Sequence to fold (1336 residues):
Amino acid sequence: MKLFEYQAKETFRKNGIPTPQSMLITSVDELGAASDMTGFPLVLKSQLLMGGRGKAGLIRFVKDRAQAEEECAQLFASYYNVKKILVEQAVHIKSEIYLSITVDPVAAKHMIIACADGGVEIETLAETAPEKIIREYIDPDSGISPYQMRNVAFQLGLNGDVMKKFSSVLGKLYTAFKANDAELIEINPLFITGDEDVVAGDGKLSIDDNSDFRQNTYEKTREYYDSDAEYESALEGIPYLQFDGDISLMCAGAGLTTTVYDLINYEGGTVANYLEFGGPNYKKAVRAMELCLKNESKVILVVTFGTIARADVMAEGIVEAINRLKPDRPIVTCIRGTNEEEANRILKDAGLVPLYDTEEAVRKAVSIAAGGDA
Amino acid sequence: MKLFEYQAKETFRKNGIPTPQSMLITSVDELGAASDMTGFPLVLKSQLLMGGRGKAGLIRFVKDRAQAEEECAQLFASYYNVKKILVEQAVHIKSEIYLSITVDPVAAKHMIIACADGGVEIETLAETAPEKIIREYIDPDSGISPYQMRNVAFQLGLNGDVMKKFSSVLGKLYTAFKANDAELIEINPLFITGDEDVVAGDGKLSIDDNSDFRQNTYEKTREYYDSDAEYESALEGIPYLQFDGDISLMCAGAGLTTTVYDLINYEGGTVANYLEFGGPNYKKAVRAMELCLKNESKVILVVTFGTIARADVMAEGIVEAINRLKPDRPIVTCIRGTNEEEANRILKDAGLVPLYDTEEAVRKAVSIAAGGDA
Amino acid sequence: MSIFIDENTKVLVQGITGKEGRFWTDHMIGCGTNVVAGVTPGKEGQKVEGREVYHSVRRAVEQEDVEASMLFVPPRFTKDAVFEALDSGIKKIVTVADGIPLHDAIQIRKAALLEGALVIGGNTSGVISPGKAMMGFFPYWIERVYKPGRIGIMTRSGSLTNEVTAMVVKAGFGVTSLIGIGGDPVPGTRFAEMLPFYEADDETDAVVLIGELGGSMEEECAQMKRDGLFTKPLVAFLGGRTAPEGKRMGHAGAIVSGGKGSVKDKIEAIESVGGKVAERPRFVGDYLKELLGQ
Amino acid sequence: MSIFIDENTKVLVQGITGKEGRFWTDHMIGCGTNVVAGVTPGKEGQKVEGREVYHSVRRAVEQEDVEASMLFVPPRFTKDAVFEALDSGIKKIVTVADGIPLHDAIQIRKAALLEGALVIGGNTSGVISPGKAMMGFFPYWIERVYKPGRIGIMTRSGSLTNEVTAMVVKAGFGVTSLIGIGGDPVPGTRFAEMLPFYEADDETDAVVLIGELGGSMEEECAQMKRDGLFTKPLVAFLGGRTAPEGKRMGHAGAIVSGGKGSVKDKIEAIESVGGKVAERPRFVGDYLKELLGQ
Fold:
């Protein structure tokens, strides 16, 4: 679960990492109270999960009240559906640093990534100037040691008081990384101010969904998702991606669903949505089809090849879904695996024409989407 | 620093380990309020740091108010100088377990020690029935895992709900062990009650003095020490042990002081006090001599062989101490090491007769103590 | 010779008394697996499929010879169960749990590396040497998929593995050892770490790699081949060729980000060392025929 | 050959710009030690005794060959400094800090074992190969104590070591390598772990062990001798023969408790394998003469 900037900064503050003075507002009316707190100049930061907010004009530096109100109104009215703006004190910046912590799956360690060129996307830098990227590996059991914080600071060219303040921020960021079961925690940019303070200019925090049982600070609300279908599927725990093509995928197995997605593209078809109802969700055929039907797709393609996810149970689910939802579009099925004979009997009894080969099923769906016979 | 039972139990409760209902009292007057809380029967537990309180009659099981008042008054009036009594609810005990955590210096791990025969001294058991002692080793970085708690529980023969409760207590005890920089944390006995609850019947917690800078919950007050001299030396950080012989040791170096102690015994002398003013204390000769003079010893024996602890600085200290304290007993010196020539000149100038051989110095001190010439 | 397990490998089942544990223990035995005992805390004295159940792995290994442990344990308890197995000296562990917390997974892999153990999973169907033994839940009863033979298979997927393996069998081959390293972002064991075992196995003629977008595991395999540490024919099938950048498609962690982890890069890496990458599952069999000169 | 260090060993000094660090770096160089550089965070660019100072061990080892590190670092920062040295691959570390927290000491020793490194200390005077090199603060200028020769010495003490070594020298011997493992309850390296180095050293004829009540380190040495892993003459001097039970006398952790750790037991253990235990420091020289046939 990816958090908004203002939430990441809440976590930073809880862990003692300095952030600029700020207030979250949901309408232009609240701007006065916010600017009383931050003073001018200030920065209006649209709270959206997308990257590149700066380039998209969603972050505005304003000098006075009049400008603030105008730009704030613009942001709330923008195409991007801005619901919340973080009004933040403008800090006098001497330099900017990139700092993040994630995991290294090969070394089985936590990995600190830092760069003296803050503000830029680290992925871009990895392409253009990989030698500028500093990495420090942390043993997940013994945790970070002060010398490792200093190692990063010295490699960044910091010294004296700033070195000490940076090391302290890094130590606290690491504490937050572990305590929040973070996939990624990032400060980009981390400001070094004119007063030699070290302050988090931005904040990203992505929490591992598998840790939900021990991490429940933030509820999964609609605002974290781009579409209703993505939100609803997330609540169900069903992997779902929104596209805008013709074929709704309702497949089982992450790898197989991705493969079907590829095959559709090879055959010249287009995908309306990616939906994976394998694993723990294999009994959720009704709910899955409901999500597919929210799209204006022309056909639903069901491909499975399951083990625990028994073919007969899935077939029963499909038939039940058809009976209950009365879908307005054709359904192509290719259900294999444990009890596949029984599954195909069930499908036939329900008037479907089960297929047995994935490519054949894909071609059939593409043909239907192109106007061919069901 | 060894804590009192009531303090160890405070720590237990803070960490979620169940303890019987109890109240600490400092006079018989408070008994009523305490017994109102615990009900009868109750246990009166004298708060002393010595072992074997039960055998010494310092723990009393009482049935009613009258008996409680009588026994309580006896305890406060006893030879052992009881200042505080823990009034504790009497628990219905089904069985007793021994449980402690300490460090294993060879394996470099934390070590859980447990035994199904609670209540007895573990050292005694180590002699008589070592096969009954259960040990579980914990990596100091990764910490305790639930399977290790269960391993101990199953070896103790626990099962079902009691197994789960015991495992929980062990996990919390481990947390307390680490959080308090404990040398030893011990629950002996750990009660299994008639209701299958797991409750700490007693508590020992010894905190590593080297961790004082990060462990300052309890102040070192007089009540932790047997004598004024031990208390005052502890405040100074000077290792000191009280004996009742004739010769006050004022030596430098833990190993050398112990060796001088041995040599005095070999020569038929007796030690009044062991005092080690080497290392960081080597400039504290005045304070050290002051502590020695608190004893009714017949001679003060100074033996050193120092490096950083420079011989000349020590000699100057001795001379200053003599000038300021005007000791009423002879002083034998044997000061060697860095700048020893200068040291011996200083001692001679002050009218002392410096010796150069430890055994010679010891014989001289023993002779003086036996009435010989200084 | 088989990789990881064969019919002689002495297998312990942790979580044997649970519904899933019982069901698949039955199937593992049915498949030929030498299950010697089980563990469920608090259930010592019970039996499952005639095998003794112990309170703990330590008590089990005191009574039984154990070489490998199969975990049917919920994700949140998996780290503890893996640590327990490692602590008893078990060097082969399979965990099928789907949903192991990332930070636990890092600690699991670290512990495995430290102990020199192979932890396979989580989020996997497990390991199967068709006709000999299985740890996990493969539909070994589907004969057009799990036929014995001389092809090694490594995979991140479940259903896709059935799909691709069926194509391998359709082409006239069979499988020596199939290792499902699992779809988690931090699997306990990585593809490249299994290659030396396939290299040393006389009964494996070639290896099929079923990978996907994201991560660097396929590139690591290419590097092994480049370094001469793996010399047998290598055919890969990689899901997510047409996946758009920035979307998490497939397993957790399968994402193309900042131009890294794209299937295009992986194809280049594998082909640059003489491996083949099949565009469709069906082509895997064709490439095997080509490389093995059949 | 010397144990641990000789005049060629390249030594780094962590905490070199502190008062103690500067003072003893000067003395170490005066004693013949090959000090190559120093480390103090934030002080890079300075020089101490002509040696470059670096911000970190990592930066030092990038610039200089380093084989051993000498720590003049306060006790509460010692764990971090040891970890820093280990992280840069340094396998010989001496820390003189007196007052290292017990829980830190456990982690230090664990890390050292894991890395296969020797961490000597804390609470020690260090290590000296008289006439060649020193790491720590031995009064090498006292010639009646620190005379080169063919006797190896291991000790937990400072002043007592001066006392006993003076007796060894008085008896006509000298010292090859003196290792002060330190007086802490959990030293980074234990007596028995140094014995193989003395065993392998052609220039060491016998070893003197300066121990005390408490712990089991002397018994571990006896076990090494029993196991045939140490075959040279062994003479021990043990403080605390007459120490009463239950009193902490000597170094931290030196306590007889529950009948364990008594000097009596240690004497039995050492004598049972042919070692000698001197009742007085003076007798150490006599026993050496006896065992070495002089």
